[in-house]
Recover the amino acids of this structure.
């Protein structure tokens, strides 16, 4: 009897040990299977998300470049106010000179029309002095 009990206990222990070994041996493969299953389901979405992010990055880089270029253009325009003031002064000076030239031409034309006859210089005669 004792042999049968002993054999029964040994069989239970060996069955439990075999079951434990089976679970330990298969657990990593089950875990890897679950990981593989998860990756297969989520990978297409992750790839799409990555391509969207790259597209957004390119668009934002383009927008940043445009804004920086616009800022530099505005800064250069504010720095050019000195040149515009100089151009304004030169234009005013040119207008003034043109008006003076017009006024002097107007006077010379009025002098020619109002004078009774043009003055003709007398012939040159050398003076003889003793």
């Amino acid at each position: 009897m004792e042999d049968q009990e002993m054999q029964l206990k040994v069989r239970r222990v060996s069955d439990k040990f075999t079951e434990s070994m089976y679970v330990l041996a298969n657990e990593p493969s089950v875990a890897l299977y679950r990981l593989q299953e998860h990756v297969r389901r989520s990978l297409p979405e992750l790839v799409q998300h990555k391509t969207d992010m790259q597209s957004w990055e390119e668009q934002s880089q383009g927008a940043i470049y445009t804004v920086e270029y616009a800022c530099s253009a505005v800064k250069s325009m504010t720095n050019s106010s000195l040149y515009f003031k100089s151009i304004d002064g030169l234009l005013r000076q040119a207008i003034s000179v043109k008006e003076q030239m017009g006024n002097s031409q107007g006077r010379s034309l009025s002098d020619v029309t109002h004078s009774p006859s043009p003055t003709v210089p007398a012939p040159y005669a050398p003076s003889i002095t003793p």
User: Anything to note?
Assistant: The two ends are 186 Å apart (CA to CA). The helical segments are 2-79, 81-114.
